[in-house]
Amino acid sequence: MAHNNTHRAFGRAVTPVGTAGRALRGTGGAAVLGTVLLGSAFAAGPAQAAPAASPAAPAISAQAAAPAAPAPAHATSVSTAEKLRWGSQGSAVEQLQSALNDHGDSLSVDGKFGKLTHGAVKDFQRSHGLKIDGIVGPETRGALNGGASTSGGGTSAPAPSNSATNSQQAIVDAARSQIGASYSWGTSKPGVSFDCSGLSSYAYKQAGIDLPRTSSQQVAAGTTISKSEAQPGDLVVWPGHLGIYAGGDTVIDAGRTPGAVTERTIWGSPTFVTFR
After folding, report:
1. Cα–Cα–Cα angle for 208, 174, 272, rounded to 5 degrees
2. Which phi-psi region, left, alpha or beta, contains residue 2 (left: φ > 0; alpha: ψ -120 to 50)?
């Protein structure tokens, strides 16, 4: 009876070196010993082709892909044809302040044309070769608007000398209403007492125009003109004193002499200042 030679299973390990093993040796160059790999049999296998690249997406030009740049903000325009000056108020002044800010200033947009706005206008006029008077008329307005003056559909003819607009007449009427009030330095008390600049600031305020308080500030804020250009409501100025031009050759002022608000003949050689 034949016996299978099974004792060899207990004596030593049997290394499978069959066809599969030779195939691996032939292809990868690494021997297979039991379940232990020597070398890199798997890595050395036949190289697999890289997966085919997916179809390329249509190319997008850099110009098309880039987000469109925002359009530059349109500069604020000063749309009123009215001259703006120290004491002016309202939406037109807000436009002016915004336009000045567009040109590099940092004004509060409060609709009040005061010291800071006045200074900014003068700086703008200086830098643009304009007449430096702090008044926003057609030329300054046109420069602020990029060269396009908005004159409201036409240029009005200058008022004849010694004529008065409603606001100018309101200034004269307000000053006349205080004739007889006493002179007192540093006061502005309707029906009681005024000094010279107290009377002018009061009279202008009745026409909706805020002037600085002192005579030197008022002169600096306005525009000096000749007597031939003067109109009722403009200021008549002497060193240390001023009054309100009433037309012809008269002035309404609060003077130390005669110590009251009076309407009298202009004396000496004063200058004239306007806020028109």
Report:
1. 80
2. beta
The predicted model scores a pTM of 0.52
- The pLDDT-based confidence of 65 (bands split at 50, 70, 90) is very low
The Cα 29–Cα 22 span in angstroms is 9
- Where b means 16+ CB within 10 Å and e means fewer, 171-203 reads bbebbebbeebebbeeebeeeebbbbbbbbbbb
Cβ count within 10 A of residue 219: 17
pLDDT tens-digit map of 143-170: 999 874 444 433 333 444 444 578 899 9
**Phi and psi at residue 194, to the nearest 5°:** -145, 160
Residue type (1 letter), 48: Q
**Sign of the Cα pseudo-torsion (169, 171, 174, 175, in order):** negative
Where does residue 89 rank: exposed (0-12), middle (13-18), buried (19+ CB within 10 A)? middle
3-class DSSP assignment, residue 89: strand
Structure tokens at 63: 């110009």
| Other beta carbons less than 10 A from residue 104's beta carbon | 10
